[in-house]
Amino acid sequence: WGLLLLSAALGATAAARCPAPCVCDNLRAHVLCLNGSLTAIPDTIPELTKKLDLRGNIFMVIPAGAFLATPYLTHLDLQRCKVERLEEGAFRGLGRLVYLNLASNGIALLYQESLDGLSSLQHLILEGNRIEEIQTGAFGHLGSLTVLDLRANALVYLPDMVFQGLHVLRWLRLSHNALHVLGSEAFAALPALRRLSLDHNELQALPGEALARLDRATRLDLGHNPITYVAEEALAMASLRHLFLDHASLQDVAPDAFARSPQLRMLDLRENQLQGLPPLAGAGGLARVSLDGNPLLCSCLLRPFHKWLARARVQAEGACAAPPALRGRSLDSLKPPEMRCSHLQPLPSPTALLEQPRGAGSRQCPGGCICSSDFHHGSCENRDLREIPQDFPKDTRLLDLRRNPFSTVPPDAFPGLKELVSLHLQRCSIRVLRPGALRGLESLVYLYLSDNHLSTLAAAAFEGAPQLAYLDLDHNAFTRVPAGAFQLLPNLISLHLQHNAIGELAEGDLAGARGLRWLYLAGNAIRHIAPAALAPTKMLEKLHLEGNHLSEVPTAALRGLPVLSELKLSRNPIKHMGDSVFLPVVSSLQHLYLDNLGLEWISPHAFTGLGPKIRSLYLESNKMSNIPDMSNFTGLEILNLQDVPFHCDCQLLPLCRWINKLNLRVGATCGSPAEAQGLKVKLSTTFQTCPGWGRSEAGETNPNKTKAANKPSKKKGLGKSPARGFSKSRV
């Protein structure tokens, strides 16, 4: 009776405090304040409320500490409240909240502390806002989140590590944004992700490097993106089972495109522009492929794919669009003799096939090409054209001219295409880009010139394309960076010069590239970088130099790069690493790749200045005999020490303890002694005979005992070796 009376008293108190425009259900601890005119969070909501529904009010701003009076909330709904800003600490005190709905508001930016205090949150809905930017660390306090919904916002770019802290996230929803660039480490901090939704964006290529980080994801949605081609080994996702590439602009898929996704079972390629497919030999586990809505040409060219379907027992859905005798026939009903070569001819556009024959009233398009009115795309891919065709629709935004032997791009090659955004000229045997070749392309943002024979470029070649931001010159014949070529490109953000034959980076090579943010120089023969070579690129964020011939870290060249956050030096013959080699970039560097160097020695002071800002460090496949003190690398989320044959003796004990504190999977294994060979450093029992092991592992905190156990060294570092670092006595 006493408890009943107390409960009744509490209920009466709660009822008395229920805000006037709200309805309070005290039995279920629910409060509803729907579609009212509230302009501030009511401060008289019962303290014991668990579910609070505030949909349809006018809050504009959620101030710091807005819900401190209701610490027992588990569900909070703020849909359609015209919220434009979340102040730092807005949800502080809501440590029990598991569901937060902020859909259909006007939020434009997520700050680092906007979602602070939501340590138990499992489901966050931010659909239908105006979010253009997410600051790195914005989700850092959401360690329990399993679903993050960012659909229908205004995201264009995802920076590296933007989702750091979301260690148990299982579904990330990014559909219906404007994404066209993903940082290579954008998804690196999502070890538990199972499903990623990237459909209805502006991705023009499959973002393979970023997706490769998701080794546990089983479903990937990439439909409704203007992706025209899936390249060789483009997708490396070890656990992927379901891939959706429907309603894109696919015209070709490489035979081994999915060779590095061995678990793939279902491939959805509906409503693309595919005339056929090669045998997908790399997709050994594929069970079903959907090709409905593609203009399939059921000629002899389709026989290898048809034969592969039968041999691999893959179920295929789709029907022939041509030749006329086979139009409408399903793929599984075809017999090889019916697929003849006598009907082989260029197909008309998909819209002509599906809607009406071409005539006086139809959309203009050069002969032998395909022009899609739905996507504003034009394509003459692999038509053996010797000259660049003209007379494309004036509203064309993507033009695909790959695999034609043009050899030269003449002046004024693309007249009337003022709205063109993306131009594909890969594999066109181009040796010369004439001055004025791009004149008139005032909206051009993306230019793909990879896999050609270019060895030089003049600045005048880019005249008339001032908006060009992404320039791909990979796999050409450059022996040096074309000096001064970027003077007329003030908006150049990303420059790809990978897999050329560049031997050095000289002063003046990058003159004019003052807005450059990402520079990709992997796979060249660079032996030297002049100290002032990178001076014009003060906004540089990423520098990829992997697979070159550098014998040392180019420290002098890194000076003057105040925002460099990612440096890749992998696969360079750097055997030794001296003192303070990264000192010029310690204030900004977050991701450092030093793997596969054959590194034999690292100075104990090599990482001087680096510390909490470092998020990922790759040191795998090296031969070093010591590792510098990294105890102040407190922000590490990725550390790779695989294939380093550590000698697991007492000198390595500090590293063992540090790794255990990190709570990361680092892959460090013992190479010796014999009884520890192949064991994880964390699990090796060889440390149990080391002085002080028992006391420290039992939780001994006596500073005098700890100090005694670490003698004789008083030097700074995490070990007893003269190298003053994490050390091993032999490799």
TrEMBL record:
Residues 692-731 are annotated as: Disordered. The keyword Secreted applies. Its main location: secreted. Residues 294-342, 645-691 form the LRRCT domain. It is found in: Secreted, Extracellular space, Extracellular matrix. SMART domains: LRR_BAC, LRR_TYP, LRRCT, LRRNT. GO terms for cellular component: plasma membrane. Residues 701-711 have a biased composition (Low complexity). Keywords: Disulfide bond, Extracellular matrix, Glycoprotein, Leucine-rich repeat, Repeat, Secreted, Signal. Associates with collagen and binds to collagen fibrils. Belongs to the small leucine-rich proteoglycan (SLRP) family. SLRP class IV subfamily. Potential negative modulator of chondrocyte differentiation. Inhibits collagen fibrillogenesis in vitro. May influence chondrocyte's differentiation by acting on its cellular collagenous microenvironment. This is Chondroadherin-like protein. It comes from Picathartes gymnocephalus.
